[in-house]
Design brief:
This protein is an alpha/beta fold and 325 residues long. The chain has two domains: 128 residues, 2-Layer Sandwich (Nucleotidyltransferase, domain 5), CATH 3.30.420; 175 residues, 2-Layer Sandwich (Nucleotidyltransferase, domain 5). The chain contains twelve helices and twelve strands. β2 and β3 form a beta hairpin.
């Protein structure tokens, strides 16, 4: 048995559960992964929990430890996390609302469980072991299917009164704008989130707008990657230029508002869309320099995440470590 403190981190994603084992809050010594199959119609809660414990078992085997050696578990999951109960509300990755994830995990594992939003977990992972080490304050913005963020102030993860801090994708970006997936008008996510971006492109093309985007995806409009819209924009496609300008401006506004409001040392800008088009970081830096208050703009460093896809699981495990050390 290892004498050092071992904690597990779980990232509940849309297609998979990613798990890691963290030694002394510092070193990843094992990883595991299992499919979630959430979209399968007959998927049950028991199936979902089995996927979590299967991925945990895989990580423990890779780390050459027993599940009994774990001191605590941290979980990052998309959606709203009720701070008092650990219930997961309105998660795009779970078909059940108010899912009592902490209760079910603690009942089965018999150890403490910490549950937070996945992007908050990723922000803490980058702050503690990634791109934000040695910073006092950090903001992490991840642009993928949607837009999420996490905030660290003076070495503490800021979760807000009900655990919902960082929902920057649903801040108001444009008056009377397009409808967001949340049902409201003008959210930043409606312009820069990958899901909304391809839906806007598809709607325009089906209305008869001519665009080389259609040919670039072989006529399949059921999924249009942001990188395709970016490449079409670089080739002078008018629809793509309009859509991509919205992406740039929405991300620029989100980042510069964060710099003005929180004056962070580090702004981590990542997520699937940014990793596919890293030039977005350059745009965000320029937008901040042009629009943010000068002392804050001079101070902040806009950087890429260092932990990659493991950042939510690592951050969750590191937060779990803080509860037992």
């Amino acid at each position: 048995m290892r004498k050092s403190v071992l904690t597990a981190g779980i990232d509940v994603g849309g297609t998979k559960v990613q798990t890691i084992i963290l030694e002394r809050g510092l070193k990843v010594i094992g990883c595991g992964k299992r499919p979630t199959d959430i979209e399968r119609p007959d998927r049950t809660r028991e199936d979902f929990m089995a996927a979590i414990f299967g991925a945990l078992e895989d990580a423990c085997k890779k780390a050459s430890i027993s599940f009994r050696n774990l001191s605590s578990i941290g979980v990052g999951c998309a959606g709203q996390i009720e701070a008092t109960t650990g219930d997961v509300l309105d998660s795009p990755h779970l078909k059940w609302n108010r899912f009592p994830l902490r209760l079910l995990l603690e009942k089965a594992a018999k150890i403490p469980v910490t549950i937070i939003n996945d992007v908050q977990a990723a922000a803490w992972g980058e702050y503690s072991l990634g791109a934000g080490q040695n910073a006092k304050s950090l903001v992490a913005v991840f642009v993928g299917t949607g837009i999420g963020s996490g905030i660290v102030i003076n070495g503490e993860l800021y979760r807000g009164a009900s655990g919902c801090a960082g929902e920057v994708g649903h801040t108001h970006y444009r008056m009377g704008g397009v409808r967001c997936q949340c049902g409201r008008l003008g959210c930043a996510e409606a312009y820069a989130g990958g899901e909304s971006l391809w839906l806007r492109a598809r709607r325009a093309i089906k209305r008869g707008v001519k665009s080389r985007i259609e040919g670039m995806v072989g006529g399949n409009l059921d999924k249009i990657p942001a990188s395709v819209i970016y490449r079409a924009h670089k080739k002078g496609d008018m629809l793509a230029e309009k859509l991509w300008r919205d992406v740039e401006l929405a991300i620029g506004v989100v980042c510069h508002n964060y710099v003005n409001l929180f004056n962070p040392d580090i702004l981590v800008l990542g997520g699937g869309i940014v990793e596919a088009v890293p030039e977005l970081r350059d745009f965000a830096r320029a937008y901040i320099n042009n629009r943010a208050v000068r002392p804050a703009a001079r101070t902040v460093k806009v950087v890429a995440p260092k932990l990659g896809s493991l950042s939510p699981a690592i951050g969750a495990a590191q937060l779990a470590f803080k509860t037992v050390k």
